[in-house]
Design a protein that fits this description.
The complex is a heterodimer of chains A (220) and B (102). By secondary structure, chain A is mainly α. Chain A has six helices and one strand, in the order αβααααα. The longest helix of chain A is centred in the last third of the chain and has 44 residues. Chain B has a domain of 46 residues. The chains are: A mainly alpha (220), B mainly alpha (102).
Chain lengths: 220, 102
């Protein structure tokens, strides 16, 4: 990603997020849940952005484990942090939707429980990287791969187990009036995720550069 | 090897982690088992009853405000950390250059 791509990504993300409220207001109300269902247009894309981040984390972790590429390690850390951020968005918007739709803030069904566990796995990854000391980078890479392996189970959890959360079949069968605002917000979140990944990866690159400078200073 | 993270950054992360864990633990108090079957599809409608609008609106606004706040807040923390790193890089580069010059 270069200096031309990044501004384009930022501009695209801003465009989508500025126009998203208008698109969402245009969308019809859902017959069962009414107005509160419109949280869906941010709730679903935030989780998809988290899944994208986790897949980037997992793939970068695999590359780092087998090739020990510092850049892959930097991307992995960046992606893990993004996954926590987008997961937090999902965990906040979900109960706000659920308290109106289900009458309770939270239920320990399969989908919600797995979502919390996945978020905790990612927090554990970041804590391990921050406080783990020597060798924690490889251990965390293994944890990142484990986190990635959980994502398919989380996604199909509503199909495998009895749960109050809407099933995944809702999304492919959306009428177009619901689909347009959803996929518009989805595009915005994906672009935002990539733009944030670029910025966060730059932070890691600068951190590695600083470490090399300190090594140079100590050698002299 | 000197670490570049500042105490505020560590404290902020610890505070956020503590808040997150507290929220997860508190929600066990309000947890119930699912009683209804999952919804299979979303069905559009043209108008909603008036009594539906007011209670849902604060929740909707809060959800969107939370997303915006988290995104902007995270971007701000990246900017702050990047600024601190680049200042430190400049300082250490100068020290390396001074050492090499001498």
């Amino acid at each position: 990603m270069n200096r031309i791509t990044f501004p384009i990504l930022v501009a695209a993300a801003l465009l989508v997020f500025v126009t998203a409220p208008f698109v969402i207001v245009w969308a019809p109300y859902e017959s069962t849940m009414g107005l509160v269902q419109k949280i869906f247009y941010f709730h679903f894309p935030s989780w998809m952005a988290m899944f994208l981040s986790i897949f980037i984390l997992g793939i970068a972790s695999v590359i780092y484990l087998f090739r020990r590429t510092p850049r892959a390690d930097g991307v992995a850390v960046s992606a893990a942090e993004l996954a926590v951020v987008f997961g937090l968005m999902g965990l906040i918007t979900g109960p706000l939707w659920g308290v109106k739709a289900w009458g309770v803030w939270w239920q320990w069904d399969a989908r919600l429980t797995m979502a919390v566990i996945l978020e905790l796995i990612l927090v554990a990854y970041l804590l391990l990287r921050r406080y783990g000391g020597p060798g924690s980078d490889r251990l965390a890479a293994g944890l990142g791969i484990f986190g990635m392996a959980n994502v398919p189970f989380l996604y199909v959890s509503t199909e495998l187990w009895r749960t109050v959360h809407p099933r995944t079949s809702v999304v492919p069968t959306l009428p177009i009036d619901f689909g347009v605002p959803l996929w518009w917000s989805f595009a915005g979140f994906m672009v935002l995720c990539l733009a944030l990944l670029f910025v966060r990866s730059r932070l890691e690159e600068q951190r590695m550069r600083l470490e090399r400078l300190y090594l140079t200073l100590e050698e002299e | 090897m000197k670490r570049s993270g500042c105490r505020f950054d560590v404290g902020l992360r610890l505070m956020l982690l503590t808040l997150f864990v507290s929220l997860v633990l508190v929600q066990t108090t309000f947890a119930v088992q699912p009683l209804e079957t999952a919804q299979d599809e979303f069905v559009p409608m043209d108008e909603i009853p008036a009594e539906e609008q007011l209670p849902a609106a604060p929740l909707l606004v809060s959800a969107y405000a939370a997303v915006w706040a988290i995104a902007i807040g995270y971007l701000w923390t990246i900017g702050r950390r990047l600024g601190a790193l680049e200042r430190e890089i400049l300082d250490v580069s100068r020290r390396v250059a001074d050492r090499e010059g001498s």
